[in-house]
Amino acid sequence: MVRCAGCFLHQSKRVVDIIVNLCGIGMIIYCLWLLKKWNDGFSQMLIVTPLPRPWFIYICLAIGIAVCLTTLYGHVVANCDSSSSLCIYIVSMCSILLLQAGVIVAILFKIDWAWQISKYIDEHYKNFQNFLNFHLIMCRSVSVVVLVGQVILSVFRIRLFVFTSILMQPSYLFKL
């Protein structure tokens, strides 16, 4: 019975990894599209001063890439039955999550991007400014939702680690 539960946990972890990986791929595609719109929108304007860098787009893109790489790594670790490799993965994943949370707060929430964008856009391009402000809110929301999904996945992996290291020991199986 314990082995069936372990197999179910491993299979469900793989499914969740694939879903999170698809979210990361969608995030990358969205950010590349948004970067194209940023470049197209500013190329139509006659601006003499240098443009600000779209760090909110770059950060969202980097988070999407990090999500894809960590879930692919997690999918590889899911095929290992070693609890030590799962422990190393959990520690590295928690470190990456803390780094992602810090970058999201520092870049997406501490900088007033609406004011930064409004400095460069005059009254003639209000539609483009509204477009950018809407997608700034979308980048913030998507980044936070994906970060919460990764935290939930990490909690799931920690539960799997506890299950495989404690419950799958031969001495515990004989007590059942």
From TrEMBL:
Keywords: Membrane, Transmembrane, Transmembrane helix. The chain crosses the membrane at residues 15-35, 55-74, 86-111, 131-156. The keyword Transmembrane helix applies. This is Tetraspanin-19. It comes from Vitis vinifera (Grape). The lineage of its organism: Eukaryota, Viridiplantae, Streptophyta, Embryophyta, Tracheophyta. The gene is TOM2AH3_0.
